[in-house]
Amino acid sequence: MKYLKQTIVLILAILASVNCYASASMTHDIPMYEDGTKKKTDQTTHKHRIPKWSTRCTITSEGIKSSSFESKDIRNIEVYDLSEDYIAYFVDCASFVQFIFSTEGEYEIRFYFDDYILYGWLSL
Questions:
Q1: Which of 21, 72, 101, 109 sits at a 20 to 30 Å CA gap from 78?
Q2: Helix or strand or coil: residue 76?
Q3: What is the pLDDT of residue 124?
Q4: Structure pTM?
Q5: Are 58 and 28 within 8 A, CB to CB?
Q6: Which of 27, 62, 36 is CA-nearest to residue 119?
Q7: pLDDT computed for residue 4 by the predictor
Q8: Cα–Cα distance measured from residue 122 to residue 28, given in angstroms and rounded to the nearest whole number
Q9: Which residue from 61, 62, 60, 71 is spatially nearest to 118, judged by alpha carbons?
C-alpha cells in the first residue's frame, strides 16, 4: 500500500512538471485583421474600397512578435470574451503576455496603434 501511494505521488509530480513546462514553452499564432472603423491618417483620394489588411502575430512567453509591426508600437491592448464583454486592458505587452499564459478560454484581442487597430481571436 505504501508503495502504491509513493508511485501515485511520483506520477502526479511528473505530470505537474510536464504541464508547467508545456505552458511555459507554448506559443499562440494568431491571425490579426485591421478594424475598418478607425481610418488611417494617410487616406488615398480615390473612392474605391480598400480591402482590410491582415497579418499574423505570435505570442510567446517572451512577448509579441510579428513581421508586420513592432510590439513597442502597440499603444494598448484590450481583451474581450466572445460575447464582446470587456475583460481586461493592458498598456504594456509584458502584462498582456502574463495574462495570456495564466488564463483559459476564448477571447478577442485588440491591439491599438496610433493609426489603426488590429483584432484577432485566441483560444487558450
A1: 21
A2: strand
A3: 82
A4: 0.69
A5: yes
A6: 36
A7: 63
A8: 8
A9: 71
CB 78 within 8 A of CB 112: yes
Please say whether the beta carbons of 116 and 41 come within 8 A: no
Q: What is the DSSP letter of 100?
A: H
**For residue 57, which amino acid is it?**
C
Which residue reads 511528473 in cell numbers? 14
Strands 86-90 and 76-81 turn out to be antiparallel
The helix/strand/coil state of 110 is: strand
β-bridge mates for residue 15, sequence order: none
**30 Cβ neighbours under 8 A, 6+ residues apart:** 56, 57, 58, 59, 109, 120, 121, 122
User: Going edge to edge, which strands form the sheet with 54-60?
Assistant: 63-65, 54-60, 28-34, 117-123, 106-112, 76-81, 86-90
**For residue 26, what is the enclosing H or E element?**
none
pLDDT of residue 56: 92
Residue 23 has which C-alpha cell?
A: 505552458
Q: 83, 56, 70, 76: which is closest to 117 by C-alpha?
A: 76
Through-space distance between the first and last CA atoms of the chain, rounded to whole angstroms: 39
